[in-house]
Model the fold of this input.
Amino acid sequence: MKKIKIETLLAHDGKKAHSKGAVVPPIYQNSLFTMESWEDIDQAFDDRVNNYIYSRGNNPSVRIVEDKIAQIAGGESAKLFASGMGAISASILSCIEKGSHVITIKNIYGPTNNLLQSYFKPKFGIDITYISGTEISEFENAIQDNTSLIFLESPSSVIFSLQDIKSISKLAKNKGIKTIIDNTWATPIYQKPLAMGVDLEVHSCSKYICGHSDVVAGVVIGSEEIITNIFTKEFELLGAKIAPFEAWLLLRSLRTLKIRMEQHQKNALIIAKFLEKHPKIEKVNYPGLKSFPQYELGKKQMTGFSSLMSFQLKTDDLEKIKQFFNGLSLFQIGVSWGGHESLIYAPAISYLKELSKEQFDEMGIQLGDMRISIGLESAEDLMEDINRSLSSI
Ligand SMILES: *Cc1c(COP(=O)(O)O)cnc(C)c1O
Done:
């Protein structure tokens, strides 16, 4: 059969996990799977990765989702985790050892930064170099003899800056350095880092892949060899497994991933263009805008754009900033993103707690920076809501 398209893959599960013709596969709410004989269980242990023995390792409700995500991302294999951070910590651990050097970008997702900087660095003595990531020369200059990992996030958190995935992967491969990318923003629908040479792709499935704001989960995708390695070490031993019910909810979510992303993108572009022209807005950070400094690179390595963006209010009067923030009615206040509902968050709320004034300035974050996740509502209603709240300040 001709290679089937993504929307077909997402809508069908194949017949493997169905029983009695059920159109939706059942939830295998099992901690263990029994066998017929000594010989059967003995044989099952010879391939723990592919047999169902115990649900800390493998479970059919989880496996069906892993296979589907691997296929849409163009990877050989995938492993689901209890959270995005579970997937990120396991994948980083699989690429470092005591004394390793890691290169990453300044605007990396906060908890990933904390994991490297406040946990792995003091515990394992790893060394970290932070770069903006926009120039390939920064990577070339940062590489040391003990560099074992380049950790990318493109687009990055907060300012959505991009890294040239293909060139960086090529450079890393030549030097025997592993690459991981956090691909949560673009999803496997709009960006295929494995095809560009990255070793491991990680996602927080809590965002667009779930899309209904009812699951926290993560996934790692890569070659069969690397995923098998992660399965038997970081996955089974650290134990950050996903529950069968949550995997089942993700299977539900995947059926609409492509059409949801199309709607998120459509809404986001309308809102971004509106914000860009508004007199009370200083700047909009959205890779889908032609005015975005790396628009051309974005077009080259992504086939679409999602709906998380940030913008800066012109005012730096904290009272007015709060008034705008609290004055919205369709945008709910909260962390996370990628769900059906529109959300707003101000990065300053976290960073003012965690960083010194100098570090805050260094990251290029302003008091009036707003991060919004555009949901599946009517773009017109959302625009009106923002406009109304802006008029009040
Ligand atoms: C949310 C998020 C994560 C962490 O995922 P969890 O599922 O919350 O653990 C990782 N990377 C990015 C870019 C995120 O936004």
